[in-house]
Specification:
By secondary structure, the chain is α+β, with helices and mostly antiparallel strands. The chain contains six helices and seven strands; from the N terminus they run βααβββαβαβααβ.
Length: about 160
């Protein structure tokens, strides 16, 4: 079942993110990799900045995905499924659920080297925007370091123009 997450879920959310993010090790630039991938203070800051997390709960959270309202668009943020629970449709279910929570165009940022993530979003109807638009959108809607802008890509829903 998909349910809203609260601040009390932060330890579980963090565990899922740090488990699933191991897929990025060796794929993303070494200078962008951190151990742990996300710290609790960063997760709390994201939540305070308006990222609303939803979780797939099967006797405990096994997948999470956030959505953030950024005015004229919504951002999908921090989409992760526990390693042992991948390829079971959990990510797709979370994405489809979050799509129904907004009428705004949706943007998704991910690492350029995360080809598996890009394929997932493309299979779910998103398209990679041009490099020029990627840079512009990342700088407009995200608060990330320049190095991350250089090594990321943005995907857009069909309703994004």
């Amino acid at each position: 079942m998909i349910r809203a997450c609260s601040a009390a879920d932060a330890p579980q959310i963090l565990a899922i993110i740090n488990d699933a993010a191991q897929a990025y090790r060796g794929a993303i630039p070494a200078d962008r990799w951190h151990e742990p991938y996300m710290r609790l203070d960063h997760l709390e800051a994201e939540m305070a900045d308006g990222v609303r997390f939803w979780g797939y709960d099967d006797e405990g959270l096994i997948g999470v995905m956030g959505i953030q309202d950024r005015g004229d668009v919504a951002l999908i943020r921090h989409a992760y499924v526990r390693t042992v629970s991948r390829s079971k449709g959990i990510g797709r279910q979370l994405l489809q659920f979050l799509e129904r929570t907004t009428e705004k165009p949706i943007l998704i940022g991910t690492w350029l080297a995360a080809t598996w993530a890009i394929r997932f979003y493309e299979k779910n109807g998103y398209r990679v925007v041009s490099r020029e638009d990627t840079v512009r959108l990342l700088k407009k809607y995200w608060n990330i370091p320049e190095r991350q802008v250089e090594t990321s890509v943005v995907l857009a829903s069909a309703s994004f123009r």
